[in-house]
Write the structure tokens for this entry.
Amino acid sequence: MANSNCNTGTRKFEHLNSYERGIICALLNEGKSIRYIARQLGREPSTISREIKRGTALQLKSNLETYEAYFPETGQAVYQKNRQNCGRKCKLIQAEAFINFAEEKILKDKWSPDTVVGSCKNDPKWDGKTIVCTKTLYNYIDKGLLGVKNIDLQLKTRLKSRKSRKKKNKRILGESIDQRPEDVQRRETFGNWEIDTVVGKRTSEPVIMTLIERKTRMELIFLLDGKNSEAVNSCIESLKKQYGDWFSKIFCSITADNGSEFSELSNILNKYGSQAYFAHPYSSWERGTNERHNGIIRRFIPKGKSLKDIHLSVIKRIQDWMNTLPRRILDYMTPEACFNSELSTLSVM
């Protein structure tokens, strides 16, 4: 019990600080006992005893005789050295196989650290092997313990987002996104897509058109001759020929922005039993999935790069990479696997 003359209550599970070590030294020099010092500091006698042992050093007198004395500086130095051995130990050596795998996937295949960790957790071949969590992997990268640097990560740094602008809609191309069913908004049903175009150096050049399914994140990428409604309609026609009677079930709805290239989208989709919806002007977040995936495409085809010399094989390679990339939002399954699962469900119905 603490001394009634001392207003410091008994503290538990708190380490001694340098001020308290100074008091211990002063009281010891006055010849006070360990129990007296403990009462004055509101500590257990065993705590004071261990501290005195920790801070006691052998000294030499002028006549070459030796004696032991407690020094608060010595106790503090020993304490700080011991604290370095506390806490979790680095698993870098134990997880060497995983670290090598992560470096290869991040540098070669452009995976994110989270994708690497999530895919390994779902892969049976990593059962029983040491892996680290996403936060730890990022910490290793920040500390320079891996061959991967922050500049190698695609989304480590971002520009400050711009403030949204609201302007009057001057073009009405079809049904507003406000009319889109709630189950589509919540991604509960399959077959609802977002559409957009990605331009290169000039708008007069070929452009890339992207279609992404909202539930499975399946991405379809096309190279169009130009940014116009004729090229978009031709692409929709080719999809209708590919899927036949299944078109209206696979492409139940498509949400677009108010670009002139989508001016005929409502007409052609209505002809095939599907529905088009249009986002509000200057509201790219309403097609967030589409915009996010367009950003991924920019990793391969930067802004300002001409699309004249882009071969279809390059487009196919980008599409395959995106559709076979494990996603955290899909429980680290790939969009391709989720899309094929939905198609198999349709065939059973």
